[in-house]
Structures are given as structure tokens and as C-alpha cells.
Design brief:
Length: about 450
């Protein structure tokens, strides 16, 4: 770092200091005259101690916070906590200077530099992207890998390619999961359409009081006739008027089925959202409808979230912008828009879409809990928790740090949170790993309560 600074500034312009408590080798810094840039190595000097000992640091024009990437990866440092501390002195993060995309944790010795300044200037989309990415992947997530357990994986229940990405619901005092189960490995499916369309099944899992699997059964699916091959996946669960439903994706070809010798043009597949009833006693999933909306439906539709309030059924089409629809009682499975507005999420504005992860669930007397995610390059996911006010059905709070972030929460390349249940003051987060395995991560509601911050637009 010293040589890099001297490549830009002359020696007369730079002062180096190493404050050491009760040490004759200590070289505490003195306040510079005039305007100055403060460069802080947080690997060796904690930010809170420095700002307490040298309050004049808050008079800097700019602050560069430097550290090794490995210090964040091993949770020695936490970018969210650092950000909150510096913001209290009037600074705002402006950029994250990194040698590689943070979604690739390739080198623990790589240096990360976070730039702060006292300015109201709006960030460019590229600057916002780098800042948001740094705060997502250099922060300690709420869910820790130490609280995670593997429930199923490749070969489980006879499915060679794995069991993963379940919807969850609590029924009759037990947690039920409707998971995607794959017979053929992905590298076989993508080359052979005949394998792709028959590989996926729905698997119903029953968990005991310790949230471990006590029973599993294959689900018989009753889908309507189709002119082209199709398959169902990405199951979510909700209860309405005493019946258990699943909203799920249906992937189909827009044209005639390709031959078994051809590869599938995945960029041409159609993805639709369907509603089916789930009979837990018989293990039957029965198609009911493809919901219709009062707005255009795209060729690729997924990540719709459903929840109920009393006898009313709602469809959360998008989180940012916030687009909420309500079921029309006069037209079966038709939904009409009742809210469409921006909500001012602090993780927004970087060009990445914010997508629904789960069907919202009851959190407390006044709120529903929702979880959203962003997808970074190479399917690297980060998740945040939201609270929805039950009265006005608008989002009102967001977690101040990620709920789950890939490498920090699970040692997997792909980490997909698809459902959660709240029981005995604890959240069970059900997550698919590497499109092959199923895990659960426990997070106390008490811990989550400490992370809520209000949204500016409510």
C-alpha cells in the first residue's frame, strides 16, 4: 500500500503512522493541515478505535478503507458494521475498488478498498453496483453456516441428481416440504430433451420436531394435456380457505418437440406460473389454473409469490417496483393490480433485479415476513429479509445486512433459498445447494429483530 500511495503522491504529501497502544514503537498520526485524504488499513487498526482516538479523521475530504479480501471471507471484518460506523460521521460509501468481481472469492490476499466521502452526489449505476456487491459479500450474513444442516442430496430417495429447492408449509403440527427431485444429472439433461422433460419429480417430505426428515413420498402430478413437452419445478406452498396449494413453474417448448439428438434451446423455453392443489394425504398435485393478470405476461414468468390475509388471496408480482395484485372473486384465478409503486430499497439502483424468493409467511401480529434475492454473475445469490405491514400490505422494513450470502452461509457455489417456516421463535430457512442438495439453516427471530431498518418509502 505504501508504494502504491507514493506512485501517486510525493513523500512530502504523505504521512504514515502506526498507532500502537502502550508501545514505545507507537507512531500516532497528527492532524494534517488543510484538506486531506485518510487511508486506513483496517486489517491492523479497528475503525472504532481509530475514530475514537483521532476524532479529526471525520474532517477528511475522503476516506479509503483498505483490507485483505481474506479478512472479510473469514469474518474477521464485516463491511456492513464498518459502513454503519463511518456513516455516523457523515460519510457515504462512493465506490468499491477491487481487482476482481467479489462473487469470485479467488484470492484471500487480494486488496479491497472502500471509498467514502461527504457528498450528496448521486452514484452512477456502476458505482452503486460495486458498492452493493461489496456490502453483500463482504458482510457477515445473518444466517451462519454453523447453524446449517444437510437434509438430502445426490442419491437421496433414489434420485441420482439430487433433491433440492423445496416449498414449505406447516400442517397438523409438522413441516411439509415439496421439493424438486431429479433423476438425470444436468449435463445429461441439457444434451437430451427426452431426459430433460422426464427427469424432474415432486417429492413430499415430512419433517419431525427436530426438522429432520421422517417420511418421504413421490407425488403424483395431474397436469393438463399439452401440445409440447413440459416439466414442473420450483414448488412453493401456501394455504387458502383450508386447502393447500402450490404455485410452481411450468417449463415448455414454444414449438414442436426437438428430437432426442438435439440439444434444448433453453433461451427459447417458455416459463409459466401455475397453481395446483396439493393433497398431502394421497400425495397428489392437481393442476388448477394458469393465473391471469390485468397486466402483460411475458414469455418467461417466475418468482411470483402468493400469500393470504383472511379469505383474500394476493399475488406479489414484483418487489422493486412493488407490484401487488389481488384475486378477483368474480373471475377464478384472475388477479388485479392494487399497488404499484417504488419502495426505496437500499440494495436497489445497481441494474440488478430484486426477485421474490419465498411465499411470505406470518411473522407477528402486524407483519408478514418476505425474503428477496439478487443474482450476481455465475448464479451467485444474496438474500435479504423484508417485513410487510398486514394493514396496508406495503413493505415497511428491511434487514440491514444479507440474510444469506453464498460463501458466508454455505460452502456451495449455488445457494438458493426457496422457503421458510417460523416455529418456536426460530426461522428454518430451506435452501437448495448447487442444484442438487437440500439444507436447512436456523436463525433466531431474536437475532433477526436486531437487523430491521425502516424503509424510506412506506
Amino acid at each position: 500500500m505504501q508504494s502504491e500511495l507514493l506512485d501517486v503522491f510525493s513523500l512530502a504529501q504523505v504521512s504514515f503512522a502506526t498507532p500502537l497502544e502502550d508501545s514505545p514503537a507507537s507512531a500516532p498520526p497528527s492532524k494534517p493541515s488543510g484538506s486531506f485524504l485518510a487511508v486506513i488499513d483496517v486489517d491492523t487498526h479497528p475503525l472504532d478505535t481509530l475514530f475514537s482516538s483521532f476524532p479529526w479523521l471525520s474532517e477528511a475530504n475522503d476516506i479509503l478503507v483498505c483490507a485483505r479480501l481474506g479478512s472479510y471471507v473469514c469474518s474477521k471484518l464485516d463491511a456492513t458494521s464498518q459502513n454503519h460506523l463511518i456513516e455516523r460521521t457523515g460519510f457515504r460509501i462512493q465506490d468499491a475498488l477491487i481487482p476482481q468481481r467479489l462473487s469470485y472469492i479467488q484470492s484471500s490476499s487480494a486488496r479491497v478498498v472502500l471509498h467514502y466521502a461527504k457528498t450528496d452526489t448521486s452514484l452512477t449505476q456502476a458505482e452503486r453496483y460495486r458498492c452493493n456487491e461489496a456490502l453483500a459479500f463482504l458482510s457477515q450474513p445473518i444466517a451462519s453456516s454453523t447453524q446449517s444442516r444437510l437434509l438430502a442430496g445426490r442419491g437421496s430417495f433414489g434420485f441420482q441428481a439430487g433433491v433440492f429447492n423445496p416449498g414449505a408449509i406447516q400442517k397438523d403440527g409438522k413441516t411439509r416440504l415439496l421439493a424438486r427431485a431429479e433423476r438425470a444429472p444436468w449435463h445429461v439433461q441439457k444434451r437430451d430433451p427426452s431426459k430433460f422433460y422426464v427427469s424432474a419429480e415432486a417429492l413430499l417430505l415430512t419433517l419431525d420436531s427436530e426438522q429432520t426428515i421422517e417420511a418421504a413420498r413421490r407425488v403424483h402430478q395431474k397436469m393438463p394435456p399439452s401440445k409440447t413437452p413440459s416439466r414442473t419445478e420450483d414448488f412453493r406452498l401456501f394455504s387458502w380457505l383450508g386447502q393447500t396449494y402450490s404455485n410452481h413453474a411450468v417449463l415448455s417448448e414454444p414449438e414442436a418437440k426437438a428430437s432426442a439428438q438435439q440439444t434444448i434451446a433453453f433461451d427459447q423455453l417458455k416459463s409459466s406460473v401455475a397453481i395446483s392443489t396439493l393433497d398431502i394425504e394421497t400425495g397428489t398435485l392437481t393442476w388448477q389454473a394458469y393465473p391471469s393478470l390485468d397486466r402483460p405476461i411475458q414469455r418467461i414468468e417466475k418468482n411470483w409469490a402468493f400469500f393470504t390475509q383472511g379469505d383474500e388471496l394476493y399475488l406479489l408480482y414484483s418487489t422493486s417496483p412493488y407490484i401487488l395484485l389481488k384475486a378477483d372473486k368474480t373471475k377464478p384465478w384472475h388477479f388485479q393490480t392494487i399497488i404499484e409503486e417504488p419502495i426505496g430499497l437500499p440494495i436497489d439502483g445497481d441494474g440488478l433485479s430484486i426477485r421474490n424468493s419465498i411465499n411470505p409467511i406470518d411473522y407477528d401480529q402486524d407483519h408478514l415476513l418476505h425474503i428477496v434475492h439478487k443474482v450476481y454473475p455465475d448464479k451467485t445469490y444474496a438474500y435479504w429479509a423484508l417485513l410487510i405491514n398486514k394493514i396496508n400490505l406495503r413493505t415497511c422494513k428491511v434487514s440491514n445486512r444479507p440474510l444469506i450470502a453464498n460463501h458466508q452461509s454455505r460452502s456451495s457455489s449455488i445457494c438458493y433459498l426457496s422457503s421458510t417456516v417460523l416455529s418456536k421463535g426460530k426461522l428454518e430457512l430451506f435452501t437448495g445447494l448447487d442444484d442438487s442438495s437440500l439444507s436447512t439453516t436456523e436463525v433466531s427471530k431474536e437475532l433477526l429483530e436486531t437487523t430491521w431498518v425502516p424503509l424510506t418509502c412506506q
